[in-house]
Amino acid sequence: MNSAKLLDLMAEAKSVLEANWRGKSTIPSRYLYPHQWSWDSAFTAIGLSHLSQQNAQLELDTLFAAQWADGRIPHIVFNPEVSPREYFPSSDFWQSSSNGGPSSVETSGIVQPPIHARAALDVFRNARDLSLANEFLVGIYPKLVSWHDYLFRNRLEPGTKLVLTLHPWESGLDNSPLWDQALEGVTVMADVATSFTRRDLQHVDKHDRPSDDDYSKFVQIATDYRDSGYNDFTYVDSRQYAVVDPMFNALLAWSEEALGGIATAIGLDGTVHMERSRQLTENLVRHLFDEELEVFIAFDALTGDFSRKRTVSGLIPIVVSAMPMHIVRKVVETATGEHFSVASSKSWGVPSYDLLASDFNVRLYWRGPSWLNTSWLVWRGLYDHGITKIADTLLENLIELVARSGCYEYFDPITANPHGSKDFSWTAALAIDLLESKKASAGSE
Ligand code: 2M8
Hints:
mainly alpha; two-stranded antiparallel sheet
């Protein structure tokens, strides 16, 4: 791609982030998601770190200002100025401040993948003002530790010793086929099914979004959790959904490694974090690596069944540095083979689901399309494990995808057609990070 096109992409990505900036944090999209989302903010901070160190730090600090007393980082921090009619479920649904959440701000009660320590370390590494960056790390480190402690204390699944997601929204990959089996067991009460109006369909095509049936189940599970007062211990008996997700755990392991790096940077001992990461990695391999499918799969803690499907969630554990190289190689073979066709002319980005599955869908939410954040995670895994040729091909492919189709929420992996919301923050942020990496590696040649 010529340098004028690269500059155009950089300018477009910057203008998306500027337009979505709300003074202290960034919203994922002006059309669909008008509040602050947890893992979106982490990805956005990584992109912002190349533009403004201060804003990147503020993005994460604002999110962590909404941390609950028990350490959880909520998946949404609501902007009080936005009408509840703009997004469902709104703060009235979650009732966080009367159920253990902070009193200063309204939030949701569930969480999202723990990628924040990794984002904080990237922000620190890209910083120009080192004393400011050091102050930022010192301030956020105990909050990151308490966030991870929450997961280890409240969410540990005793059999696998991995952490549980209690809602498909907690995975960030809301509608992935990996959760289908677990969702089959969810009973929706009549009053819940009729209690809400979807707001998402006002903004995007219904063929791109989860079905009404799935949505009712999402609302039912969130209602059950809320009605327990978000108490992870008393909730155990009434749970209708409790799933061990490979990506969520891999990101926790990767972030524990990052916490080790942060601890060292601020003069503390990071051994405990490296040890936690090692243990999580061992448990991921032991319990969730499927030798036949050659990907990581999910475990349903309520039924004891495994969800044996090839999804992007099962490729992402290669981000963890401690992942044994023979496992990394097998996963990379799956990623570059016919099921995902990564880094080939046959697909754009990393498809969210097996291209050969009978229910693969090019446009439906997390059931086929390529997303920039999950593709970026696979790229980081390749790159960090020194699988440079494939990593570089994927990097070029992702840059070209966004340059061609714009900063959309997700893309058809076969045609590159854009889907979901336009001007999407993590797409813009991670495009910036990829462009900067390309520049850095060109400079080092
Ligand atoms: C999507 O999830 C929200 C619920 O959290 C939704 O569908 O309304 C997912 O793609 C999730 O990963 C993302 O964080 C969120 C905001 O971009 O949108």
